[in-house]
Amino acid sequence: MQHAVGSELPPPHQPGQGPAAGWVPAVQPTAHHPGAPQGPAPVPPAPGFTGGSPGPVPPAQPPAPPHPAPQHPPVPQAPDTTGHVPLPPGGPVAMPSAPPATAAPDPSGATLAVLLIGPAGAGKTSVAKYWADHRRVSTAHISLDDVREWVRSGYANPQSGWNDNSEAQYRLARRTCGFAARNFLANGISCILDDAVFPDRPVVGLGGWKRHVGPGLLPVVLLPGLDIVLERNAERTGNRRLTDEEVARIHGRMAGWYGSGLPIIDNSQLDVPGTARVLDEVLARAIASPPSW
């Protein structure tokens, strides 16, 4: 079967259907003569084809103008976000305001930043965790030792000798803990940090924490007797266990906190819950009359 040159092929015929919709032969036969040879049905000319049948060609339609892309106003972005919850930036912690004289300060419901100071074996970590667990408001425990141990390769273990690496890693861990505390406090979560801060190094010790967290940090010294810290240190494992000589040396340096004006808790005869209760009492007094340090 042949078709006129330039004509398009008819659309395919679907089973059970007539000719394809929209397709009509260009010429319909006017009469049928029996016996006359039947030729192929004429097919419609291709669009724009004028060969053999001169006639007017419809003018080409100009292309439709493109639709302009919709303009949307810029969406303001929060300066600091986590998911979809904007977080206030962490700033220095201000000194807590003293409550009215007629009201007893209640540290259990206040947003506080506490620094628990003490030698190895004083129970700082245990007391800090317990105190944070049992408060009426959200409270985080930020452990300096845990942050130091984030360093896996190249960790400077002070038991192998104090050097520039261990000094730098301690300072870096203190600054990291300070930043974390400021961010928690800016979002309404109290913090308790623990560190062996020495009174004979005020610039690195309390001075560093004051710079990292703010003047509202409340330092409290946990200082049991030497025999107690030696006994507790003996129960430690891993790189947190020190030699007896090192424990005794650190404990002797911590004695310099006596007469410093900072509150000191001797928890030699106190268990962890009892020490946490005394810590609340000390903090209530510190809120009413913040220590100068």
Notes on the structure:
The chain is elongated. It has a domain at 114-287: P-loop containing nucleotide triphosphate hydrolases (Rossmann fold, 3-Layer(aba) Sandwich), CATH 3.40.50.300. Strand 1 and strand 2 form a beta hairpin. It has 7 helices and 7 strands; from the N terminus they run βββαβααβαβααβα. The relative contact order is 0.15. The protein has helices spanning 124-133, 144-148, 164-186, 206-213, 226-234, 244-254, 272-288, and strands at 81-82, 85-86, 113-117, 139-143, 190-195, 218-222, 264-265.
Overall pLDDT = 77
Strand ordering within the main sheet: 4-5-3-6-7
% residues in beta strands: 5-15%
Largest sheet: 5 strands, parallel
Share in helix: 25-40%
At the fourth CATH level, what is the homologous superfamily of one domain?
P-loop containing nucleotide triphosphate hydrolases
| Broad shape | elongated
Number of strands: 7
Q: State the CATH class of one domain.
A: Alpha Beta
DSSP helical segment count: 7
Report, as a whole number of angstroms, the end-to-end distance.
Answer: 106 Å
Sketch the topology as an H/E string, one letter per element: EEEHEHHEHEHHEH
CATH architecture of one domain: 3-Layer(aba) Sandwich
CATH names the topology of one domain as Rossmann fold
Radius of gyration: 42 Å
Structural class: alpha/beta
